[in-house]
Write a structure and sequence with these properties.
Blueprint lengths: L4 H12 L8 E2 L13 H17 L4 E3 L9 H9 L4 E2 L3 E3 L10 E6 L2 E8 L8 H9 L3 E3 L2 H12 L5 E6 L3 H10 L5 E4 L10 E3 L2 E5 L6 E8 L8 E2 L2 H25 L6 H27 L5 E8 L8 H10 L5
Parallel strand pairs: 1-2, 2-3, 6-8, 8-9, 9-11, 13-14
Antiparallel strand pairs: 4-7, 5-6, 10-11, 12-14
Helix pairs in contact: 1-9, 7-8
Length: 329
Amino acid sequence: MLGGLARRVAYVEKVQGGNQRALVVDSGDLFFSFQNYSDSEKALKKAQMIGRAYRHMGAAAVNVGCLDLLQGVDFLRQEYSQGLPLISANLLARSTKAPIFPPYIIREVGGVRIAFFGLLPPESGPEISPAIQRANEGKILIADPVEAARETLRKIQGKADLVIVLSDLGLYKDQMVAKEVPGIHFILGGHEGRFTRRAVQAGMTHFLQSSFKGMYVGQLQLTLEDPSKPFRDAGEVQYLQERIDSLDLHIRGLEEAKKRQPDKDHSNLNRSIREITQQRNALQEELKRAKEAGIQGNRFLFKLEALEKVLPENEEVKKWISGAGIDKD
């Protein structure tokens, strides 16, 4: 958890580099993991260090994930009071049924108003859910994410040009939310830790995840020309070309296999070559359309950057970790 924290801070600072258009957000499960829940004192120290680092980076929004509740909501309240911008549209105080943290945050970047709102799952499995309930002693209520999303979108209508959900639900439930609540441009998901090189799309909503344990930083670059129009994946040309190149390599391999066995029946190989060629031709048509679309309209480019050990670390954060006597795990 902490092994890459100083590296993450150094990387983010390099990307920001005085560029006020770069926002740092997190989709949840930032502070705790179920594996370290047994050593609560050590887990709490690490979580406090993570919160400090995210404040240092000037995070714009941090969603509350289900694992973040394992030490109790009072810890999160303390982090929020110290300036960490926690959000959650469906984490409610049981006594008042009101959101514990702001349901959404709107940040203006380059004249574009971006609304972030957060969601977490009402149920987190037979082991985690009881642990969350014990840690919070009846203080919290997790509302239906679809209803919370619908209500939040109603509140921000007319206040934002873009709507981005920071989600700890998982891809399947993210897709359910997008289907039931139109008007969401992007859902940046966590919880499952999927490695996604290319966005999944349903309707006008694009779904992205950035692997797990902070091993990668996901960069989403947005270009907005008309808020009423959908976004297009600017990386589609490269992605399609890579797939075509892979199929070409496969076809060449099958052709070479035919040459090595000239006396054998090649009906199966020929059938495979025809099927793969059909796939390739279909992709070639997609590539042509993508190139013709050019660089016009709303578009995004997503990439994952691995936080390799060879990358520099932020020296100040390294001193915090060392001074706290916390092992890098």
